[in-house]
Amino acid sequence: MLTQMIIKKFVNDHENTQDKKVREAFGVVSSVTGMAVNFILFLIGFIIGLSINSIAVIANSFNSLSDATSSIIILAGFKLSNRVADREHPFGYGRIEYLSALIVAALILMMGFEFIKSSFSRIINPMPMEFDFVSFIIIIAAIPLKFWLSNFNKSIGRKIDSKALLAAGADSFNDMLILACIIFSLIMSNFFNINIDGYVGMAVALLIIWAGISIMKETLGPILGQPPDAALVQELKRLALSYENIKGVHDIIVHNYGPGRSMASFHAEVPNNVDIMALHEDIDRAEKEISEKLNIFVVIHMDPICMDCETTIKAMEEVAGIIRKIPDVSSFHDFRVVGDGEFKSLIFDIVIPFNKKEPKNIENSLKDEIAHEVNKIHPKYDIIITVDRDYTAAEI
C-alpha cells in the first residue's frame, strides 16, 4: 500500500515503464527513499552500538551507512545512464547503471572485510556488553522497516527491470537477517551471560561480504555478456515468423547496452523463388515493426532457401529424421543441395548448446556421425556441415 502511494505521488505516468524518463523517476524515488531510511538507521544503530558497547550493532550501523551511500551511487547511475547517445557512445550510456551496481558491490565488500578484522579483534579481546531495553526495542523496530525497504526496492526493480534496485532489495533483506542475529547476541549476553558479540559481528561481516559477492555476480553478467531473456527470444521469433515470406529464424544474437537498450540480429529464411526486391521490402518492414514493438534495434539477414525442389525437400526430411535422434543437436538450418547427377553436396548448419565440454571434439564427432548416417542413404553425397552455437541460452 505505502509503496503504491509513493509511486503514484512521485512518478508521473508510472505504468509506462518503457519510457526512459519514467524509468529514471522510479530510480530517483527508490534511491532517495533508500538514502533516507538507511541514514536514519545508521544514526540510530551507531548511537545504540556505542551506548551498549556492541561491535555487532556498530558493524550493522555502518552497513546501513554503506547502503545509504549505495543509494547515492545508484541515483547517480540512473541519472548518468539516461544521457543522450552521442558519437562516442552511439547506443547510449545505459551500462552505467550496471557499473553503479558494481561500485555498490565493491563498497559492500570493503565494509564486510573491515568488520571481519574488527570482529576478530573483539573475539580475541572480548568486552562486556551493556543491555539497554529501549535500545533493544529500537533494534527490533528496525526489522520491519528493513523488510519494507527490501520489498520496496525489489518491487520497483522488477517493474523497471533494474539489477541495481534488485540488488539493493536483496541487500536490505540481508540487513533484516543481520538485525535478527544482533538481537540474538543481545539476548544471549543479557539473559545467559554469554558474550558472543564478536562471533555475531563476524557472522554479520560474512553476510555483508556474501551480499557484495552476489550483487557483483549479478551485475557482471550483463556487462560481460549473458544470454538474453528467453521470453524476449520467443517473442522475437513469433513476430518474425508472422511475416508471410519469413519461413524460419536462426542465429539470433542480442546485445545488451543497458536496461531498455538492446540490439538484436538474426537470420531469416526466405523463399528463393520470390522476387528479391519484394523480399527486401518485407525484411525492411519486419525490421522496423519488430524494433518498435519490442523497443530494441533489430537487424535481419536474409537466407534464401529452396521451397520447390523435390530433391532438396526430400533430403531435408531425411536429415531432419537423423538429427531428431541426436540429443546434442537442437536444430539445423541453411540447408542446400548443390550439384547435378549422383554426386551432390549437402550443405547445412547444425546448432548445439554451450553446455558441452571439449567443444571441438564434440563438433567433429557430431559432424562425423551425421555425415555417416546421411551417406548410408546417399553414399555419393559430400556432406558439408557447419556447427553453430546457440547464443540465446547457456543450456538447452
Describe the structure concisely for a colleague.
The chain has helices at about 1-10, 20-50, 55-80, 95-125, 135-160, 165-190, 195-225, 230-240, 275-295, 310-325, 360-375, and strands at about 250-255, 260-270, 295-305, 330-340, 345-350, 380-390.
> What is the general shape?
elongated
Output the CATH topology of the largest domain: Alpha-lytic protease prodomain-like
Please state the structural category.
alpha/beta
Number of domains: 3
| Portion in beta strands | 5-15%
Task: Return the CATH class of the largest domain.
Answer: Mainly Alpha
CATH architecture of the largest domain: Up-down Bundle
Strand count: 6
Q: Can you walk me through this structure?
A:
Its main location: membrane. It is a multi-pass membrane protein. It is a single chain. The chain is of the alpha/beta class. It has three domains: 2-224, Up-down Bundle (Alpha-lytic protease prodomain-like); 237-268 and 275-302, Cation efflux protein, cytoplasmic domain (Alpha-Beta Plaits), CATH 3.30.70.1350; 309-396, Cation efflux protein, cytoplasmic domain (Alpha-Beta Plaits). The chain contains eleven helices and six strands. Strand 1 and strand 2 form a beta hairpin. The longest helix has 33 residues, at 20-52. The two termini are 40 Å apart. The mean pLDDT is 84.
Keywords, separated by commas or semicolons:
single chain, 396 residues, alpha/beta, Alpha-lytic protease prodomain-like, Alpha-Beta Plaits, 3 domains, three-stranded mixed β-sheet
Give a topology summary:
Layout (H helix, E strand, L loop, with lengths): L1 H9 L9 H33 L2 H27 L14 H29 L8 H28 L2 H29 L5 H28 L5 H12 L6 E9 L5 E10 L4 H19 L2 E9 L4 H15 L6 E8 L6 E8 L6 H19 L4 E8 L7
Parallel strand pairs: 2-3, 5-6
Antiparallel strand pairs: 1-2, 4-5
